[in-house]
Amino acid sequence: MSTLEIIILSLIQGLTEFLPISSSAHLILPSAVLGWQDQGLAFDVAVHVGTLLAVVLYFRKEVGCMAVAWFGTLGVGPNKGTNSFDGRLAWWILLATIPAGLFGLLGKDIIEEHLRSALVIAATTLIFGALLGFADLKAKQNVNIEALGLKGAMIIGLAQAIALIPGTSRSGITMTFGLMLGLSRENAARFSFLLSIPAIAMAGSYLSVKLITSTDTVDWQAMGIGSVLAFISAYACIHYFLILVNKLGMMPFVIYRLLLGAGLLWFVLG
Known about the structure:
The protein is mainly alpha-helical. It has helices at 3-16, 23-33, 40-58, 60-73, 85-114, 118-138, 149-162, 170-180, 185-213, 220-248, 251-269. It has one domain. It is built from eleven helices and no strands. The model has no long low-confidence stretch (mean pLDDT 87). The chain crosses the membrane at residues 6-29, 41-59, 89-106, 118-135, 147-167, 188-208, 220-243, 250-269. One of its GO terms (cellular component) is plasma membrane.
């Protein structure tokens, strides 16, 4: 990859990982539309590391409280034996990640072989973009995360599994179902971001194992640039998205998805 391609793809990963517009779709599109070469396993690992560090650092206070409380539910640490909300939230997030892990393990070959085309991306971009718009317009938006409960968390976790299909958007579909369950826009976004931590870690670990067992040549410079740029752009994206979502709602992203999907259909079928 050229330096320009590394920069563009790193920024795309960082900006789209947490926006409800599908990072996987935007990373596949340059090769499908512009004919760019596949970025390779090493680069995928680098940008996943960058985005993971960004979300963990941004929510470091929440993550720290959840970690301590979670160990407390296991009888370890200063809070052992307590039943705090942070401890329950940690369990909800861990359990809600299981469907995506199982779906990815069982369906990865089908997804990689049959569901990474521009036509599939166009269809999922349109369908789930429209669903996000419907949820944003119709949701009550008055439930806090604590009232979500394990059942609500698992519903969002099941929705996250569907996002393994390119174009769906992990953040988009989890925010969509969060809104449908009554969460405010900000709470739907926050829960989606927290839920992304084990999901990104799981995806990054899988890619790392594939990289270790492969014979691919590692471009350390590309990995370094990719990781740093993905981290910076992802951190900024999380910060400003949480500010803007209360003011603008999801509609700007819905409109973008509908235009993108229509453009892709024109490109594929035209």
